[in-house]
Amino acid sequence: MEIKSLNFDGETLHIIDQRYLPFEFVDFQCKTEQDVWEAINSMKIRGAPAIGVAAAFGIYLGIKNFEGNYNNLLHKIENLKDYLDSARPTAVNLQWATQQVLGFAINAQLNDVDSLKKAIFNKAKEMEIDDSKRNYQIGINGSFLFKDNDTMMTICNTGNLATVRYGTAFSVIQRSFEKYKNISVVVLETRPYLQGSRLTALELKEAGIPFYLITDNMSGLIMAKGLVNAIVTGADRIAVNGDTANKVGTYMLAILAKYHNIPFYIAAPTSTIDPLIKSGKEIPIEERNPDEVTYCVGKRIAPEGVKAFNFSFDVTPNNLITAIITDKGLIYPPFENAIKKILH
Ligand code: MRU
Predict the structure, then answer these.
(1) Is the pLDDT of residue 189 over 80?
(2) Is the pLDDT of residue 35 over 80?
(3) Cβ–Cβ under 8 Å, residues 101 and 73
(4) Residue 111's pLDDT is what?
(5) Is 141-343 in the same CATH topology as 6-136?
């Protein structure tokens, strides 16, 4: 059974509430922009491309019943963009997607409010399809980096659940699995939200791809033992110089990979590149509730009153990245010129 992160039926955005996976498949129904904001903020839906497309549908939900004139509708779309962008700060795909909708609305120059509403609906649908196409292509492009018997290490969840379909790093793994013999995976459990053990393990199992699950702190040992040939991760925001924000723990993997002489790849659609951000230092890093660290699956795991850090992402400097796999091809260092070229 293929798992779908979201499905819009014209009235309601259906989201699998990822907090309950892999044990329960709960359909969370977003009927308003507030529902979508809340779903993104509380990580019922997560993963950079998935939250972008959800927000595009969120804009449509916010204008569906709008009554007023054309200019006020444009103003409303602008406000909805700002509102939905505030749900999570790090993944640029969220702002990218809402900007696509806003830019489209501004340039549409239609005659009436109803035509614009319909056009926005079609635009969100188009973005949903576009995400799948890009992700499939990322997988194809990335598969050329691998060969029979390779084992890839990955962190977090970058599969169907993190996108509309196919995933990013997951697509590279799956396309390679389809192409070569004996491809296998090592997945970090990815504390505290456990995207690796709860979500990636579920998707790899469904896809029939062999894998081992490890705790995050085993990564160094696994590399030292020669058990992996490459690291492949997703990205939440890539600066123009190639510095990349992704799930916290990615930076640690990149340093370990460099030390052990293992290639380290980032897989992401070009919509994850932020042309306004020069280096990783400028990327906002989300800090979530420390309770996510002091609790695990609903159970307290630290003494009362303990303070905890809960940074959700980290930044991997460009000099630790072997290549960035995008829908438009592979980008190698020096990244800055290559990235500028790919964006134009
Ligand atoms: O906090 P999350 O689960 O939204 O973080 C997700 C990641 O870090 C992914 O690696 C990234 O969004 C790319 S997924 C296609």
Answers:
(1) yes
(2) yes
(3) no
(4) 83
(5) no
Residue identifier of the C-alpha nearest atom 15 of ligand 1: 158
Taking CA atoms only, the protein residue closest to ligand 1 atom 10 is 234
User: Taking each helix axis from N to C terminus, what angle separates 70-85 and 92-108, rounded to the nearest 10 degrees?
Assistant: 170
Tracing tokens 């492009």 back to the chain, one arrives at: 141
Residues with CB under 6 A from ligand 1: 46-49, 91, 156, 158, 162-163, 167-168, 195, 234-236, 246-247, 312
Structure tokens, 161: 């659940």
For 141-343, CATH gives 3.40.50.10470
Task: Residue count of the chain, please give it.
Answer: 344
Ligand 1 mutation target, pool 195, 200, 314, most atoms within 8 A of CB: 195
6-136: what CATH class?
mainly alpha
Q: Which residue numbers are catalytic?
A: 236
Tell me the sheet residues that pair with 6: 15
The beta strands (E) that lie in the chain are given as 6-8, 13-16, 27-30, 151-154, 184-188, 211-214, 230-233, 237-238, 244-247, 264-267, 295-296, 299-300, 313-316, 323-326, 329-331
Give the C-alpha distances (Å, rounded to integers) separating 309 from 72, 212, 286, 287, 294: 42, 28, 11, 8, 10
Whether the predicted pLDDT of 1 surpasses 80: no
Average per-residue pLDDT in the chain?
97
Across the range 315-334, mean pLDDT stands at 97
Query: Which atom in ligand 1 lies closest to the alpha carbon of residue 155?
Result: 10
Domain boundaries in the chain? 6-136, 141-343
In angstroms, the CA 320 to CA 155 distance is 16
